[in-house]
Amino acid sequence: MDAGDHTAREYFHHSSAKRVNTDLVLLEALRTQYPHLDVIVAPLARCNLLMYAAAGFATAEPIEASHGHHAYDPPVKWVAYVPPQRRLDSQPGAFSERVLFGKYMYKWKDVEFLMYFVNGRDGTAAYPDVTQHYILTTEPQKAYQLIKEASLWTEELHDEVWVFDGGFWDKSRELYESVQKSHWSNVILDEDMKKALIADVEYFFDSRDTYTDLKVPWKRGIIYYGPPGNGKTISIKAMMNMLYKRGKEDNKQSVPTLYVRSLSSWGGPERALSDIFKKARAEAPCYLVFEDLDSIVNDNVRSYFLNEVDGLRANDGILMVGSTNHLDRLDPGIAKRPSRFDRKYYFPDPDWEQRRQYAVFWQGKLKGNKAIEFPDELCPKIANRTDGFSFAYMQEAFVAALLVIAGRRNDGDGEGGDKAQMEDGGDDDLEKLVLWRELKKQIDLLREELGKRRSNDGNIIGFNL
Ligand SMILES: Nc1ncnc2c1ncn2[C@@H]1O[C@H](COP(=O)(O)OP(=O)(O)OP(=O)(O)O)[C@@H](O)[C@H]1O
Ligand SMILES: [Mg+2]
Fold first, then answer.
1. Do 440 and 308 fall into the same domain?
2. Residues near ligand 1 with C-beta < 6 Å?
C-alpha cells in the first residue's frame, strides 16, 4: 500500500491541529481560577491600559511570584535593546520590553482590579496580533468606566499632530515639536496680509453661530500660492501653533490640525480621500492642511476630491488650507469656484523693505556671535543686493556665507572674525566686514543659479542691482 511521502504526511499532521482560540482557553482558565469574579475582556487595539497607567492615570503593579511552580510565573516577555532613534541626537539607546503574558494589580481611582495582559496570537500568521486585557473584578461597571476613559485617552493626541501619509493617519511628534517653534513674529509678510490671514482663520473658528444663523454650511477653503520659499509653509505652521494655543490661552476651544502629506495609499486615492475626510468630520472643528495641493489633486483624483468637498455629507467645522506654487496647474473646478476654496492669498517674493526686515531678523539671530560684526547699515545693503530673491534664497545666502566663515576660522587663517577690523563709519568700512564680503559672493552665486532657473521657466529676469 502506498503511504505517500512520509515527510509531507508529518507536515500535514503537524499543521492541521484542532482550531485554536487562545482567548477561549484563557477565559475558561480565568473563570475556573476565579469563580467569584467577573472577567471583562478589552482588546488592546482600542485602549492601552498599561500606557494609560504609565501616563499617570492609574498604577499597574506586576504580580510576578506565585506559590506554585516557578516555571509558570508571569511575566512572559521579550526584551530588546533599541539604539538611539537618530544618531544626531547623541542620546543613549534604551531597553524595551514587550509583555506577552503579564499579571497586574491595577489601581484606578478608588478601585482595584486584577488584570491579565495576554498576547493570544493564534496560528502562524503574524497578523492580526490579538492582545487583550482580562480584567477581573466584582464591580464590572467600574471596569466599563475604566475602559471608556482609557479608550478616549488612547484616541486623543498627546503632543502630536495627525499626519496622513502612505494611506494611514498617524500621530507625529516630530511635526508637533517643529510647530511649537513656529511663531507669527518670525514670519515677515505685508502687515495687512498677515492680519488678514490670521483674522480669516480665527473668524471662521469663532463664527459657528453666525454661519448657522445665516443658514450656510460652516466650512471654508483657503489657498496659499506663489513662488517657492516665501513663507507658505511657515505660515501654516505658525497658524497651527496659534490654533493649538487658543485652547490654553484664550479660553477658546483648541483647534487640532490634520496634515495631509500625500494621497498615496494601498487603497488608492479614492480610499485615501474618503479616510481623510472621514477623520476631518470626526475631529471637526479642525484645520485640514493639504501641502502642495497641485501634486495631491491631479486629474485622477479630481472627482473624488470634489465629491468629498461638496458631496452629500456635511463638512461643518472644517477649514481646508492648500498650498501650491502653481495656481495655474490646479484644476479650475478647484481653484476658480468659491465654496471649495473661497479665498486665495498670494505670497510674492519679498520687496525691499521685507528683505531689509529679513536681514534684521538674521542680525538678531547672530547677536550672540562674538566673531561676526553685523552693523545696522548692512541691512539695507543686503536688501539692495538681493532684489528678486525669495526668502529661502536669502536664507541660503546667509547660511552659506556663515559656513564659509566658520570653516575658515576653523582652519585658523585669521579671516574668520572681524571685530578688530571695524573702524568708524562709512561704506569702505563695510567692505572690510567678512560677513558682507562673503554674503556678496554667495548672493552673486545664487543670482546666477536663479537666472538659470527662471530662464528655464520662461520668465523674464530682472536684474536691478
Ligand atoms: N515670509 C517669510 N518670513 C521669514 N522667513 C521666511 C519667509 N518665507 C520663507 N522664509 C524662510 O524660508 C524658508 C522656506 O520657507 P517656506 O517653507 O515657508 O516656503 P514655501 O512658501 O512653503 O515654499 P514652497 O512653495 O517651496 O513649499 C523658511 O524656513 C524660512 O526660513
Ligand atoms: Mg511649502
1. no
2. 187-189, 228-234, 323, 325, 347, 358, 391-392, 395
